[in-house]
Design brief:
With 138 residues, this protein is α+β, with helices and mostly antiparallel strands. Helices cover 28% and strands 47% of the residues. It has helices at residues 2-30, 55-64; strands at 39-47, 50-53, 68-80, 90-101, 104-119, 122-132. Strands 2-1-6-5-4-3 form a 6-stranded mixed β-sheet, covered by helices on one side. β1 and β2 form a beta hairpin. It starts with a helix and ends in a 6-residue tail after the last strand. Has a role in nuclear-cytoplasmic transport of proteins and mRNAs. InterPro entries: NTF2, NTF2-like_dom_sf, NTF2_dom, Nuclear_transport_factor_2_euk. It is found in: Cytoplasm; Nucleus. This is NTF2-related export protein.
Length: 138
């Protein structure tokens, strides 16, 4: 029985990840001025090593970025044990794909991780980490 519940939670996490990322990238690419509604007021964004805390500051940061087009290539998700997150339904989502910015038509690979929590029947971003996948020169 416990494994059935766990499998159902994983399936729910994957379905939620598909729905959430579809909305997130649509907002980011086409309606960026509305994206702040997807973050907790105390949300955290780490963008290529730059940390931004708080919904208003995240919104300003994202609005200052050039327009973008994201193409999602891979997606994975897993539930976080509710005992670890104050009994709140929480998922970890990992997404990879390509992004093109308006000021540079070069397609760039990216990796992004979201920690989302259910708040009043809506998903909110607790923490997000975005990183362009630029080869490391040693």
């Amino acid at each position: 029985m416990a494994s059935e519940v766990s499998l159902k939670n994983v399936d729910n996490a994957c379905q939620t990840a598909e729905e959430f990322t579809k909305l997130y990238y649509k907002q980011l690419d086409n309606h960026r001025h509305l994206i702040s509604k997807m973050y907790l007021d105390t949300g955290l964004l780490v963008w290529n090593g730059n940390g931004i805390t708080g919904n208003d500051k995240i919104m300003k940061f994202l609005m200052d970025l050039p327009g973008s087009t994201h193409v999602l290539k891979t997606l994975d998700a897993q539930p976080i044990a509710e005992s670890l997150v104050a009994n709140k339904l929480t998922y970890l989502i990992q997404a990879c794909g390509d992004v093109t910015y308006q000021n540079d038509n070069t397609r760039k690979h990216f990796q992004q991780t979201f920690l989302i929590v259910a708040v009043d029947s809506k998903w909110k971003i607790v923490s997000e980490c975005f990183r362009l996948q630029i080869p490391h020169n040693s």
